Amino acid sequence: MQLLILLVVIVGIVAIGQLAKVYELSSRLSGRREEEITHADTRMNANLWLVFMVGFFASVIYLYVAYGDYAPPPASEHGVALDWLMSFNIWIITAVFFLVNFLLFGFAYKYAYDKNRKATFFPHDNRLELIWTVIPSIVLAVIIIYGLQTWNAMTGDASAEALKVEVYSKQFDWTARYPGKDGEFGQSNYNLITPMNPLGIITSEGVEDAMAEIEQQIATLENDLAMEKGLLLAERARLAASIATDDHGHGDHGHDDHGHDDHADHGDDDHADHDHGHDDHADHDHGHGTSDWKAVMEERIAEIDHILAHNADQLLILTDAQIEAKQDKVKRLMRHRQRIAELESFSFESGLNSFDSGRDDQVVKGEFHLPVGEEVEFVFRSRDVIHSAFMPHFRAQMNTVPGVPTRFKMTPTITTDSMRVILDDPDFNYVLLCNKVCGAAHFNMKMDVIIESREEYEAWLEQQDAFLVDEGAPSAPENEPAPSADVVIEGGEMAMIH
Ligand SMILES: [Cu+2]
């Protein structure tokens, strides 16, 4: 079939070539120059320009009518201004479009070839230059000034009474947070993120729990390392060698090629100063006699022998890679512990402590509600990559950037119920979408926004749990599995372990 089409095309091209030859021959016979075009031909071409222009304009007008109303009415105060700005631009562009195309096709029609007309030489005209420089400048200046005004109105400071809502993005969902009765968001930090605390809200209890959890993990890992058969045997051999060397009255001690210690000080220089650097024997002071040291080392050898002989069922045998992974994890947990220990609170103007202001915060998923006609100050945060909070019906969009909170304010003007009537769609809901292609499930990043009366909004908010339900009782169950905050923070290093 395809071969057939190809054949037809080739034959067609050959036919056109032959026809051209015939035409050329006939022109030569009739004594006409081949490039000479009759007056009738020229007029027909000129008229076709006009026909094309009319068709072009008609199709553009059709597109405007059919698709010009692409969005539902704006449902926010600034949305009206933004739509005005958009329309203003569109009307200017439309006017210029019709003018320029009318001149283009009109001139092609008007100045079609006429052998009796002599072309005018018209290289330059100051007045024309002035007109087509000044008019576009003025129009552009108007557009830019109008645009800046609208932008400033949209992104300016919110009033002090404005409702505050935090919108938090992560791959791949949205979380909203209300500041609760105290009107202030709790301080947050990514080191405290757990499945039950997706925003990493800091509270004193949260810090304590996180520290306890980390201590527990470190203890488990260190216990594993203390019961590793290879490490124990190596330590025993080292101690035995050390004792033998000391018996000969010299020595260069303290090398620990298993990296099993966190004490970096191996005082090798002084012969009288022994530091074997084992955790369990850490911090031996200087100035001990050799016999003291020998006793300590022999004691440890006895201890190891005891473990090897009597606790064989508890011994672990790990590969070098597994040992290294556990040692790395201990170090990472220590860094994590350090970061949490360094968290500092601050006081709000009201005297409220920032570690306390998160207790009554309300964290919601799936949908969030706002009262109609009231100004809302949005704060955006992101956990992982740049997302974009896009609320098309409110004509609002803002990037959410990890580490850099962003914001804007808006005042919703149409309730969800009213919009359902306007659009004649009982299932309509306002949405918050992600508008940055942020990963595999980007398409799924959606949250409903419900606009309702003040009373309805308050009733809904009343039902949302505070972050810490009771004074001193974390909302997270105590036996929640290890939150593995390091998956979030140090995903790259986790990959090494598995
Ligand atoms: Cu996203």
What report would you give on this structure?
The protein is α+β, with helices and mostly antiparallel strands. Among the domains are: 109 residues, no CATH class; 125 residues, Sandwich (Immunoglobulin-like), CATH 2.60.40.420; 87 residues, no CATH class. It is 48% helix and 11% strand. The strands form 2 sheets. The protein has a 5-stranded mixed beta sheet, with no helix packed on it. The protein has a 5-stranded mixed beta sheet with strand order 4-10-9-6-7. A hairpin with a 2-residue loop joins β1 and β2. The longest helix has 34 residues. Bound molecules: copper (II) ion (CU). The site of copper (II) ion (CU) has 7 residues, from loops.
Low-confidence stretches: 250-285, 471-498
Write down the Rg.
39 Å
The secondary-structure element order is HHHHEEHHHHEEEEEEHEEHHH
Content of β-strand: 5-15%
Average per-residue pLDDT, rounded, comes to: 79
> Strand arrangement, largest sheet?
3-2-1-5-8
How many DSSP-defined strands? 10
Give the arrangement of secondary structure elements.
Elements: H1 2-30, H2 39-67, H3 77-110, H4 126-155, E1 163-170, E2 173-178, H5 204-226, H6 229-247, H7 290-310, H8 320-341, E3 362-365, E4 367-371, E5 376-382, E6 387-391, E7 396-400, E8 406-410, H9 416-423, E9 430-434, E10 446-452, H10 454-463, H11 485-489, H12 491-497
Parallel strand pairs: 1-5, 4-10
Antiparallel strand pairs: 1-2, 2-3, 5-8, 6-7, 6-9, 9-10
This protein binds copper (II) ion.
Features:
disordered C terminus; elongated; binds copper (II) ion; 12 helices; single chain; alpha+beta; 498 residues; 10 strands; Immunoglobulin-like; five-stranded mixed sheet
